[in-house]
Amino acid sequence: MASIVFSKANQFRYSTRLLFSHIIRYSTPLSDHLQPFHHPHLVGNQVYGNGSLGLCQRFLSDVAAANGNREKPASDNSAKDGSGQGKESGGGGEQDQKSDAGKSVRGGPVSWLSFLLLVLTGAGLVFYYDREKKHHIEEIHTASEAVKQGPSAGKAAIGGPFRLINHHGKYVTDKDFLGKWTLLYFGFTHCPDICPDELQKLAAAVDKIKEKAGIETVPVFISVDPERDTVEQVGEYVKEFHPKLIGLTGSPDEIKNVARAYRVYYMKTAEEDSDYLVDHSIVIYLMSPDMEFVKFFGKNNDVDSLAEGVIKEVKQYKKQYKK
Known about the structure:
By secondary structure, the protein is an alpha+beta fold. The protein contains nine helices and eleven strands.
């Protein structure tokens, strides 16, 4: 809608400037100046499109023709009565002035009344288009602000039941994490750099959250490489980062199901013998004590912003649900 408004307003302003330039610059009827000119929308005398420029030109041509026809008899009559004009005086002059008051402006194609109506109409159209444009922009701005200021917690379609095996060799489910604030991260033990960096950040944030707000959180690592990440491999891996970090793995189908539930992308890259990498989402999920999704934190969050973000969400959650 905004593009239509801009187009119509620009067409009208261009037509109005064209009209004013003809009225101001020329003292003779515009019929002599409204001949076909080189314009990208005109070919010969044919006007292509329904733009306001074409309508304005046809309007001026009609008005100029009408004025020409009206002035012709007047000029003929003045030629015939030329000899009698010298005899008139006094009251005759006043009558000429009264009759001239209703005629067109001398040398102009339109009367002052027509010119005034045209200006008022143009101003009204410009005002209307500008008002509609501002109204449309305000609606877009209001809608975007509503999205930005919306609550971060909600019933997003992230999360769900799962059954995996921990780094101690015991099967656990999502119900084992009820009553705790949980931070989930998906990765793989053969990751060269990103996963170690993210897990170090996660471990540091867990300690900072405890230190600053006294909030206990449970860090969880879920493997997306079930073929190589055995229970023993995961156990050796998680203890390098934090004593509270829980490592989970499972069969390919079990990993596929939990990744789908948490909207996590992962895919093996080109294999060279048994060595390969896994491309995957780099996200830390904050789950409520009900194991419902609260918020996610991306790679751009450092330790401080991650800790502060978790503390803020926990306080807001407790205030909302009075827990």
